[in-house]
Amino acid sequence: MNVPALIEKMLVLFFAMAAGFVCGKCGWLDDAGNRTISKLVVMLTNPMLALSSVMGKERLMSNQQVLMLTAIGFALLFCCMGLSRVVVRLLHVPEGDRGLMRFLFSYCNISYIGYPIVQALFGMDASFYVTVIVLCSQLLMWSYGVHLVSGHGKFHLSWSIFKNHCLIASLTAYAIYLTGLKVPDLVASMCSFIGQTTSPLIMLITGSALALMPLRKVFTNGKLYMMYAVKLVILPVCAYFLLRALGVDSMLLGVIVVVLCIPSATSATNIAYLYGGNHALDASFDGDHAAFNARTVWLRFVFRRFL
Hints:
By secondary structure, the chain is an all-alpha fold. Helix content is 75%, strand content 0%. Helix 6 runs parallel beside helix 12 (267-275) and helix 10 crosses helix 13. It is globular and about 50 Å long.
């Protein structure tokens, strides 16, 4: 386990958010700029990130193993989505904030910081486990997740959701891996080059959105910290003992537990800007969650030690 590498990755992400905060305070980024960057992320950089995750990579798993991991990934996400409904009711979250709170509980920031954290703890061979879970997460986050953040009535599954660029890219990436399609190295490099800008852009607009609201509102929401305690501590511990009892492979078990310890998806700020929603409130949630996550990083080391 490369602890210094993990800490370095976290510091880089915090620095990007801090840089966005400075840009917001200095007026270099405002709401209009954040909306433009959000659109760029959804329409271009995030789809490129999804595609690059399966391009130019060695096949480490058979199609049967991929399908099994896909089923586990979806089951994990559906469990989190179901638990989120219970948690927001127990915490008596205001009706207008429940969709956003459920989004933050259900989806993790796997796409952006999942890879460096898992690689630091388990090595490069574990990367594809993350890729499959990312594909599952992308499919649900850019369909039902958009509905939760935007709060536009009841969710109805329709073909229109497949017009979303991120959803199309995730399905395409999944098909590329299952069919074994060989993509030219040049195309893979192009997609990777653009896709790698996703994480810094997301962190910049999150920091900028934080700068546009009073700091007192960012770190004083007690219900948020109670939710984070459930999501980042209680849930990973329960998942660890349950999956271990079921005899899940140690590598997969470690990846799943570490993924559950990853902070909420900062894509919520992005979605709120693009599809409607309280982006200022979401940015404050992201700031709180990042702070709480920094205090629970020890949990990943504990799990890694006993795997």
